[in-house]
Amino acid sequence: GLRRNVELGRKLGVDTRFVGPDEIATIEPLVNAETLAGGAYEPDGGYIDVTKMVLSWLGGATGCGADVLTPIAVREILVADGAVSGVATDRGEIRAPIVVAATGAWAPDLLEPLGVPLPIERRRLDMATLEQEPGARALQSCITDGNSNLVIRPDMGRRIVAVAYPPEMPPVDDPLADAPPAAHYDHAARLERALAERLPALRLTGIVANTSGAYDITPDYHPILGWASEIADVTGLYLAVGLSGHGLKLSPCIGEIVASHVLGVEQVGSAPPIDAGALRPSRFADGDLMHLTYGPSARA
Q1: Alpha carbon distance 123, 241 (integer Å)
Q2: Average pLDDT value for residue range 140-157
């Protein structure tokens, strides 16, 4: 499966290749590669500064004439005679014939009152910021290890960001709620085991911060893209929800798909047409779920 993914990436223009244990150890000397058969290496890979990315997109949208309203909270999607008529916010109503629901873990709160049945669960993932010992060999690579369920990358200075995925992410009611202290303790124990297995030479002073957040997860761990009218008696409501933890990476093409569907055109600008039929809202009722490489284990 890994070699197939590497070959697919190469066909799509990604600079990636399969590397064996010896080359893994050369690329990242901190990795214990003795128990690995190999891995996928992307020399140009890295991580995203989410704040800068989102702000740049908002700036670009504003330059094209969009109105960015913030801070503002949507309390309800308004429907009249079976058709969307706008949204009710904490700053009043905004009227619109089309509403795009792209509300992440808050999607069930807005969609369930409309009778839009979506199998979305909110599940929590915990992340830790670690600090390396002064003078220790620095981690240089972004690593996703499906064997130890570890995702880890360098941050600023001596700091490192890491997640050790649990066997099952716990469900949550409030997407903004922090994990209880016992959950942070359990995550620290998982990290200790994962680091001992994959990065035993990493020298740390300890955990300096913990962060928790909620994923909006679908049964097949893939987004839902399409009109709500496929599954409910409401028109004018477009769904871009259930991104399942990899929406950030998919967001550029999701934006193009949503724009083309809402505008009723085959493609937007110079973007190639994308067939998103496999992500339609009705696929769950049809029993036609996607079965690809994403899931509840380590991925980044």
Answers
A1: 14
A2: 93
